[in-house]
Amino acid sequence: MPEAQQTAPPSFPPEPRWPSAMGLIAVGGLQLALPSHLVFGPAWLVLTIVCVLAAATTTLHHTGRHDASRIGGFLLSGIVTLAMISSLGLLVAGLPSHRDTAQDLLSAATGLWISNILVFASWYWRLDAGGPHERYRKQTHDAGSFLFPQMTMSSQARAAAGLKYWRPGFVDYLFLAFNTSTALSPTDVPVLSRWAKGMMMVQALISMSTIVILAGRAVNVL
Q: Where is pLDDT greater, at 83 or 8?
């Protein structure tokens, strides 16, 4: 194959970054809505950090500094993950003191449950098959840590369905994270790698904590 054909860019557009950024900004907003005693530091801090880092990573990506953008993305996802787990720990630790009303427990548990989905969707999107930039560089997506149904289709079936250059986007990982938090399993997307299995166990544990422990406690108080 000629060198020009080997280095030709893929025929599909780059994967948009704004869905993941909006998801993490939503997590920052949910942190802002939590009671002050469930958040370390000022309530606006996480949202501010998320907005700044999201803008920085997007700028780095569009200027071709993909490695720096990837590192910034890991930092961004790590910060919101720590913020969410810290708030969950504070909420669970405060249960014996009956400090929060049933309504506060329900609203906090709901906010943390939604945050759990968005945070882990971001992680799966950022890590699977090398991340969005690496997935973009390939002509198609046929290997990764998650076995999406489209990956089991033959090349002929993909072409017939208009999926010749299919690759997962943030919505696919959001759907996976949603199923993990509701059914406590990946449902129709088998998990292949060990890191993904470990992260899904953590996500399911957080979801179970918010649903069973926090929501159950709030219902008993009503």
A: 83
